[in-house]
Amino acid sequence: MKKFDNIILASDIDGTFVWEYGYVNPKNFEKVKYFISNGGHFLFSSGRNSKDITVVSNDLLSLVNTPCVLCNGGFLYDIEKDVIENPVYTDSKKLSQMLSDVANAFPDVGFRASYDGGFIIREEDEYIKTELSRYGMLKFATFEPLANFEKYKMFKAIFRSDKERIAEVAKYIIPKYQSSFAFTRSAETILEAMPHGVTKATQLSHLKEKMKKQYPDAVLWCVGDFDNDVDMLKFADVAACPENATDAVKDICSVHLCHCKDGAIAELIDVIEKHINM
Fold first, then answer.
1. What 3-state DSSP class applies to 116?
2. pLDDT tens, position by position, for the chain (278 residues)?
3. Which part of the chain has CATH 3.40.50.1000?
């Protein structure tokens, strides 16, 4: 038996594993590989989808050996097999109606929807095109007129703008659509619309139940930094957060780490090792 055999480590990506402009502290890569080589089960639990998760590393299979929770709990994704498991889709017709409403009320605000093939965006959405291009993710975009969005099976949608404008969007759409969607934030400049009852904890519960057959004593450690991580952190056996996490997230977590950019995941693996050696 290896030292981390009974440890499942679920890490958020943006603001936790990856800092701004795609920067990852090299210590994170080194420590995750050490964790896996010693029996650990590592996965990402993120708002990203099965396409844009690939930009985290050129060698993702050396980092992830457990199905990832993606689209904030929309599905599990087995990277090695390239298979989506346990998908939960939103109501495409209602989502398209909401997107159309926002497009009319806030023409300057960008938005995109996630589906099995990546992102759906409008050709005229320069905000989202610029954002995706900056991070090398425009190749994952499918361009469609807004009227065609509802023909896709979508997991979620996000709205992006500056902090003040997103606050205005939230104030406008949440009262109108809260009966149809759950809303969360993954950053101050992002508002996300999800199916009700779907969070990262949804898929982590499903995953942990599957793994119980082989690892009945498995302990789930989770780490995240923002609102969309809250349910995951509450579900975890042990919850951790980087220094840059919101105060609400810090209040939930028993383990507080260094800043994301300084290698919070590497530090967490050291904490786990000390814990199991006690």
1. coil
2. 899 999 999 999 999 999 998 899 999 999 999 999 999 999 999 999 999 999 999 889 999 999 999 999 999 999 999 999 999 999 999 999 999 999 999 999 999 999 999 999 999 999 999 999 988 899 999 999 999 999 999 999 999 999 999 999 999 999 999 999 999 988 899 999 999 999 999 999 999 999 988 999 999 999 999 999 999 999 999 999 999 999 999 999 999 999 999 999 999 999 999 999 86
3. 7-87+199-276
Q: What is the DSSP letter of 45?
A: B
Write the DSSP string, 183-194.
Answer: EEEEETTEEEEE
pTM beyond cutoff 0.85: yes
Instruction: Report yes or no: 241 and 253 within 8 Å, Cβ to Cβ.
Output: yes
Residues 183/161, Cβ–Cβ less than 8 Å: no
Tokens encoding 211: 């793994």
CATH value of 7-87+199-276 in 3.40.50.1000, 3.40.50.2300, 3.40.1190.20, 3.20.20.70: 3.40.50.1000
Q: What fold does the segment set 92-194 form as a domain?
A: 3.30.1240
